# Entry
Amino acid sequence: AQKITQTQPGMFVQEKEAVTLDCTYDTSDPSYGLFWYKQPSSGEMIFLIYQGSYDQQNATEGRYSLNFQKARKSANLVISASQLGDSAMYFCAMRDLMDSNYQLIWGAGTKLIIKP
Amino acid sequence: DTEVTQTPKHLVMGMTNKKSLKCEQHMGHRAMYWYKQKAKKPPELMFVYSYEKLSINESVPSRFSPECPNSSLLNLHLHALQPEDSALYLCASSRTTGTSGGLREQYFGPGTRLTVT
# Structure
């Protein structure tokens, strides 16, 4: 069965420092996609970054990068030069081609708080 | 434009009321989703529409009734809800639920915070 594990329930980080949010996954399907979403207290779920299982390079989107280590089944999110506005809940999610329901499998989330 | 809109933003309803949540996207996406999210938890999938047809109903109680009038609109009709149904209801869309498109991201609306009294 597919599973996403986020082991950090909460993190405090000083503003301007880099942040790494951990995500490990489990799937038997060779074709899958990994996603990171940000959810501020306002509630909206904001798509940040996507990594496909066959992508050769790690995905990057502005200050966000995904440290994809396929052999370790790890897909950590790295936020460079953190800002106060980065304070939010962060969810790692996976979609598996073997799952005919096309569902996103979600991790439990990490609450990130950026300190000024 | 990656915008999904939802109305209303907040809704308070009694257990005997009938109300509807609305969701709209103009990105040409052919898959639309309803999620329920409790505080500090990840979203739980409720329904998936693919090309305006209901493709997934995740054993949701019949007091929740989805409707997809066209490819841009998604409604969730609510009737005789229970206090435990109070939650954030999120709508999302993606290009498709198919194989390659199914690996693509879902875009979410801002949600409707529902309180059942």
